[in-house]
C-alpha cells in the first residue's frame, strides 16, 4: 500500500517543536470556542451513567437523527451519524464504489488531501479537474472528465483550501452530471455555516438518487476532537452504508452525540453569526497584509482558509518549515493540495493572532 | 454488496417492542456500572473547552498511548487508539490483507459475527475451523485450515459466544502458525478483564511480527457507547494501519479518550475484581437453572455469555422472538454465530435479573 498520509499532522508537529513563537495557521481547528451548550451537554451526559453509557443505535441516537432530518428536510432513515466528516466521506466514497458503476473519482485540483487518500485506500483512481485560480469550478470541465468509469464526483463547498462557494447553478449541474453518468455526487458541506457570499447551495436542494451530502459539527461547533458528523444518503443507498458504518465503527461515540444534540437544541443563531462575522474580519485583515507583502491570493467566499502565492517562494514543505523558523508563521504547503498549487501556501484563519501573523508575513516578504 | 448486518440490533429492537416485561440478555452491554472516574473524567474534560475540544493526535492522545504502552509492555509507537474494538479489528484485518500474502481469513465456528461481516466487506473470504463443544480451539485444526492463501487468523479470547479462554500453549501455537504461513494473527482480547480461569494469555506474550492484539474499554469500564479501544501492531506494520485509521476516522473521539485515561489512572483494582466475581456468581445461578430446564451448556471460563441448547428448540431468530414473547427472556439466535450452533441460544449475563431470567427459562422449558 502506498496511499499518502496527509501532511497536516507533520506540519503541526514541526511548528509545535520550533524554537520560537509561531502563529499556528496550519490546522482547521477553530479557536473561537464552542457554544456553552456543548459543555453543558457533556456535563449532563456524564451524570447519566449506566445504560446511557452503552451502545447507541448504530446509525445514531434517534433524537439526533430526527433533529438532523428536520433541519435538512429529509427522512431520518436517510441519516447516518458518523465519526466526524472523515467517516462520512469514507462511507460515501465506499458506497459509490459498491454500486459497481466504475472505479474512478472525479476530484478537483486543488483538492482536500483526504479525498485522494481515501480514493487510493479504497482501491480506486482519481481524475482531476482544475478549478479557476479563484477556486470556482466549471461544471463543463467536470462533465468532460466524467465517463462510464466514474464512480463518484467529490466536491467540497464552501471549499477547503480555496474558499470558493459553488452557486446554485453549479450545484444543479454537478447533480445532473452525476445522474448522466449514473455516478454519485459526494458533496462535503462541513463549512456550510461559514458562507460569506450568501451563494451557498446544498446538494440536498436537488432531489436525486445520485447525491450524498456529508457534514460535521467539527467546524460548526468548534469541536473537531469530538468526532460527530453525518451523511445523508438516498433511500436506495442508505442500508449498505449503514452496514459499512456498523462493520467499521459499530457506532459513533455517544457522549459526543449527546453534547451535539444538546447544542443543536440550545444554541442561539447569534453564535453562528458572530463566528462568521469574526472570520470575515480576519479575511480582511489578512488579505490586506498579503497586499502589503506583494502576494497573490483570492479572497475566500466561505470556509476559513486563504491561499497565497509569494514572489519566488514555492509552496513546498521545505519552504513551509523555513517560514515557521524564520517568520514564525505556520501554514500548509500548497503542494499538499494538488499540482496546480505548488507555488502556493494555505493559511487557516483559526488564530486570534491573524493580524500579527499577517504583519510577520508582510515584514518577511517586504 | 451482500455482507450481512449483524443481528444484534434487530433482536434488541424486537425485545424493546415486546408487549410484556422482557429480561434483556441480548447485547454485550454491561449493567454493573462504570467506575466513578469515567464520569469524573468527562466532567473534567467538559470544562476544558477551547484547544482541548480540537483534534487529538490521529493515533490517540499521547498520555493515553503511553499509559497503554506501559501496561502492555510495548512501545507507544505500536499503539493506535481506535473507535472501540470494532475499528481496531477493522484496521487489523485490513492490514492483514494489505500485506498481500493471501485473501482468506481463518475464523472459528462459532464465530463473533462481526468477523465474517468485516471479511466480506473487505473483499476477502472466510474459512472456518470448528471448536469443540466447550469452545476450546485445537491449534492443529487451525494449522490444517491455514495455507498460502491465509491473510489472517482471527481469534477472540476470552471468547464471545462460547466463554472459552485459550491457554498459553494454544496462543503460542496460534502465533507460530501465523508465522509459518506469514499470515497475521489478530487476537481480539476485549474480555481480558473477565477471565475466571486464570488461564488467559495475551498474544502479546509472544514476540512476533505476525500478531496484532486488539482491545477496548467498552467492557472493562462498562462504556460500550464511548467507542474507545486500541490495537497494538508490530513496528513494521503500524504505519500503514495508522494511515488507514486517519483516512477512515481522522481520529478517535477525544472526550472518550480523556475519560478513559482518567479512569485508568484512578480506578482501584477492586473495581475489576468485583465485576469478575459478580459475573462468576451469575454464571453459577444461570447454569443451575439451565440444569433445571434440561438444557445443554458449557460453563464459561471467561467473558459473560452462556450458550445453551434446549430440547427441540433450535436457535433460530423465530425461536428467539418466541422466547421473548412467551417466556420474557431475550437471547441471541445461535445461528448468528455460525453453522455449528444453529441448535443453540446465547445469553449475555448483563442483567441484575439473571436469576429471574433463569427461573423463567426453567419454567418455560420444564
Topology, pairings included?
The structure is a homodimer of 366-residue chains.
Chain A: H1 8-16, E1 23-24, H2 36-46, H3 62-72, E2 79-82, H4 84-98, E3 104-109, H5 114-121, E4 125-130, H6 139-145, E5 150-156, H7 168-180, E6 184-188, E7 211-216, E8 229-232, H8 235-249, H9 254-266, H10 269-292, E9 296-297, E10 305-309, H11 317-327, E11 329-330, E12 332-333, E13 345-348, H12 354-365
Parallel strand pairs in A: 1-11, 3-4, 3-5, 5-6, 6-7
Antiparallel strand pairs in A: 2-8, 7-8, 9-10, 10-13, 12-13
Helix pairs in contact in A: 2-9, 4-5, 4-8, 6-7, 10-12
InterPro entries (chains A, B): Aminotransferase_I/II_large, AspAT/PAT-like, NHTrfase_class1_PyrdxlP-BS, PyrdxlP-dep_Trfase, PyrdxlP-dep_Trfase_major
Subunit structure (chains A, B): Homodimer.
Keywords (chains A, B): Aminotransferase, Pyridoxal phosphate, Transferase
By CATH, the architecture of the largest domain in chain A is named 3-Layer(aba) Sandwich
Shape of chain A: globular
Please give the largest β-sheet of chain A. 7 strands, mixed
Q: Nearest-angstrom radius of gyration of chain A? A: 20 Å
Run of helices and strands of chain A:
HEHHEHEHEHEHEEEHHHEEHEEEH
Strand order of the largest sheet of chain A: 2-8-7-6-5-3-4
Low-confidence stretches of chain A: none
The two chains with the largest interface, and their residue counts, are: A-B, 63 and 61 residues
- How helix-rich are the residues of chain A, as a percent range? 40-55%
- Strand proportion of chain A, as a percent range, falls in 15-25%
CATH class of the largest domain in chain A: Alpha Beta
In DSSP terms, counting alpha (H) and pi (I) runs of 4 or more, how many helices of chain A? 12
Structural class based on helices, strands and sheet pairing of chain A: alpha/beta
Strands of chain A, total number: 13
Q: What is the fourth-level CATH superfamily of the largest domain in chain A? A: Type I PLP-dependent aspartate aminotransferase-like (Major domain)
Overall mean pLDDT of chain A: 95
Enter the CATH topology name of the largest domain in chain A: Aspartate Aminotransferase, domain 2
Kindly, what is the distance between the CA atoms of the first and last residues of chain A, rounded to a whole number of angstroms?
44 Å
Please state the oligomeric state of the protein chains shown. homodimer
Provide the number of structural domains of chain A. 2
Amino acid at each position: 500500500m502506498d496511499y499518502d498520509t496527509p501532511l497536516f499532522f507533520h506540519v503541526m508537529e514541526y511548528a509545535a517543536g520550533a524554537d520560537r513563537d509561531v502563529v499556528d495557521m496550519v490546522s482547521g481547528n477553530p479557536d473561537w470556542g464552542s457554544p456553552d451548550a456543548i459543555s453543558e451537554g457533556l456535563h449532563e451526559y456524564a451524570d447519566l451513567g449506566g445504560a446511557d453509557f452503552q451502545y447507541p443505535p448504530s446509525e445514531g441516537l434517534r433524537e439526533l437523527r430526527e433533529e438532523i432530518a428536520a433541519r435538512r428536510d429529509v427522512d431520518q432513515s436517510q441519516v447516518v451519524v458518523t465519526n466526524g466528516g472523515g467517516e462520512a466521506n469514507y462511507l460515501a466514497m465506499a458506497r459509490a464504489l459498491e454500486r459497481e458503476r466504475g472505479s474512478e473519482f472525479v476530484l478537483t485540483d486543488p483538492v482536500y488531501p483526504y479525498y485522494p487518500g481515501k480514493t487510493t485506500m479504497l482501491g480506486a483512481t482519481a481524475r482531476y479537474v482544475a478549478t479557476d485560480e479563484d477556486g470556482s469550478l466549471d461544471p463543463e470541465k467536470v462533465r468532460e472528465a466524467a465517463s462510464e468509469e466514474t464512480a463518484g464526483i467529490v466536491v467540497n463547498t464552501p471549499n477547503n483550501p480555496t474558499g470558493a462557494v459553488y452557486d446554485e447553478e453549479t450545484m444543479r449541474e454537478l447533480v445532473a452530471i452525476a445522474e448522466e453518468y449514473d455516478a454519485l455526487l459526494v458533496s462535503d458541506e462541513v463549512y456550510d455555516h461559514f458562507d460569506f457570499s450568501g451563494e451557498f447551495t446544498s446538494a440536498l436542494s436537488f432531489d436525486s438518487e445520485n447525491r450524498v451530502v456529508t457534514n460535521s459539527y467539527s467546524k460548526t461547533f468548534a469541536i473537531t476532537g469530538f468526532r460527530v458528523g453525518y451523511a445523508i444518503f438516498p433511500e436506495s443507498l442508505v442500508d449498505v452504508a449503514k452496514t459499512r458504518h456498523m462493520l467499521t465503527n459499530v457506532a459513533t461515540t455517544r457522549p459526543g452525540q449527546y453534547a451535539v444534540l444538546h447544542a443543536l437544541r440550545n444554541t442561539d443563531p447569534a453564535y453562528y453569526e458572530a463566528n462568521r462575522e469574526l472570520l470575515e474580519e480576519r479575511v480582511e485583515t489578512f488579505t490586506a497584509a498579503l497586499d502589503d507583502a506583494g502576494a497573490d491570493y483570492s479572497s475566500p467566499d466561505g470556509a476559513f482558509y486563504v491561499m497565497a502565492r509569494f514572489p519566488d517562494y514555492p509552496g513546498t514543505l521545505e519552504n513551509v518549515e523555513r517560514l515557521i523558523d524564520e517568520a514564525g508563521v505556520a501554514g500548509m504547503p500548497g503542494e499538499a493540495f494538488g499540482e496546480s498549487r505548488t507555488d502556493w501556501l494555505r493559511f487557516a484563519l483559526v488564530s486570534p493572532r491573524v493580524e500579527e501573523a499577517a504583519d510577520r508575513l508582510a515584514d518577511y516578504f517586504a
